[in-house]
Design brief:
The chain is mainly α. It has helices spanning 10-34, 46-83, 90-102, 114-123, 129-140, 146-151, 185-198, 203-214, 221-225, and strands at 158-159, 165-166, 178-180. It has one domain (10-81, 125-231).
């Protein structure tokens, strides 16, 4: 589960992000090829630090979203087959079983029920890049936080098993959580999106996204930010 750090900069970041994404897109391909995180702490110019940060993370966000899109395409293919009352292949059944497990949907129903398909339709969907980048900037202090530098964790994601991550220096006495450590920044981005798409705390976010899809409303980071009150102990603040 994500950390209880403030998300107060998110609305401002999302508004300003559109101006910086153009610059980020130009740098994205090169940084993705290099696969090296810049030393954000060594960049003194604020504008340069922000554009470099977004340029580095943007291709990772795109890649994570592309994988989600592929999962959604597979899901919709099965949905169409069920609507046509056609039996599923063994491979399709296994695909739904694995997706149900990944996205925390109970899949004991046999055959695959409409309830499972409805829940997966709500959960398997992309996260706006602006939202992901704004949260990453906030949680990682623009890539300079210890958990980002040493743990490839730009979102303050928590874990609870002993030695599962890095112990917070300011952890309260009696607390046992750690901040997750990932092998690569991409792994951290993927887990962040999976958390928003599956954890009960973010059902409001998923409902807002589904409503936007249903009403053909543009899916924006600003809209979905209202579903992130559980990401911070400060709530709306």
């Amino acid at each position: 589960m994500p950390s209880n750090r403030s998300i107060s900069i998110i609305p401002i970041s999302i508004v300003l992000l559109a101006l910086l994404l153009r610059v980020a897109d130009r740098k994205a391909n090169k940084l993705a090829q290099d696969n090296l995180a810049p030393d954000f702490g060594a960049i003194s110019d604020v504008k340069t630090k922000k554009s470099t940060f977004f340029a580095y993370l943007l291709p990772l966000v795109h890649q994570a979203n592309e994988e989600i899109r592929a999962e959604r395409i597979a899901l919709l293919k099965v949905s169409r087959r069920l609507l046509q009352n056609r039996p599923l292949t063994a491979k399709q059944t296994e695909t739904i079983r694995l997706l149900a497990k990944k996205y925390r949907v109970t899949s004991d129903d046999e055959p695959i029920s409409s309830r499972i398909m409805t829940l997966l339709n709500q959960r398997i969907d992309t996260i706006p890049a602006a939202l992901a980048l704004a949260q990453a900037a906030n949680e990682s202090a623009w890539g300079t936080a210890r958990f980002a530098v040493n743990g490839n964790n730009y979102f303050g994601l928590w874990c609870w098993s002993r030695n599962c991550g890095l112990v917070p220096k300011e952890r309260e006495k009696g607390k046992s959580h750690e901040v997750s450590k990932f092998n690569t920044p991409l792994d951290g981005v993927k887990y962040y999106m999976q958390t928003l798409n599956s954890h009960p705390a973010y059902k409001t976010l998923r409902d807002l996204r589904l409503g936007a899809r249903t009403n053909t409303t543009p899916l924006t980071g600003t809209l979905l930010a209202d579903g992130l009150l559980s990401y911070s102990e400060r709530g709306e603040a």
